[in-house]
Amino acid sequence: MSNTGILDKKQPHPLFKLATELGPLVIFFIANAKGNLFIATGAFMVAIVVAMIASYVVTRHVPMMALVTGIIVIVFGTLTLVLHDETFIKVKPTIIYGLFAVILGGGLLFGRSFIAVIFDQMFNLTPPGWRALTLRWALFFFAMAIVNEIVWRTQTTDFWVAFKAFGVIPLTMAFALTQMPLIKRYHLEPVSLAESEADAGDITR
Length: 205
Description:
Elements: H1 14-34, H2 37-59, H3 64-83, H4 87-109, H5 115-119, H6 127-154, H7 157-166, H8 168-178, H9 180-186, H10 193-199
Helix pairs in contact: 1-2, 1-7, 2-3, 3-4, 4-6, 6-9
């Protein structure tokens, strides 16, 4: 086995990663401001596909979160345009957050943490660290699903679009930063990279 292991995967520049994540949302916001939600939905779908293709071309890899999000955007975006009903694209974030919450929470029931898979990152934590981090993110995604439901049901479409474009990512980044003390507290240096890959997310020990 190669000593470089997961290091063989190309690591994109942080600005490139930010552009592929934030770019489609900015396009969604601008298209809604210049046109309407249906035009914005179509532009958002195209931007998501372009972002995934760019990610694959540059890194030969599409992160799991981006792939799942892209599929759901395409499905619910298509329903929005075909049925001409804004509800589908508005409820899409609720479905995504709820799905991630279920995946993480369900994984805990079977003694596994899927944080590394969802976020396309490698953590080396003790079993208590895996459990705590996974539970926190599951609760965060569950809370975000509730917030999305509240916002789109009680606020204007323009407000919801602005929140989706410029509120969700800062909230997620802020929450991720608050988890750094936990990650540092339970961090383990792997005996070998191969062992790290094999044990990632195992909380049964």
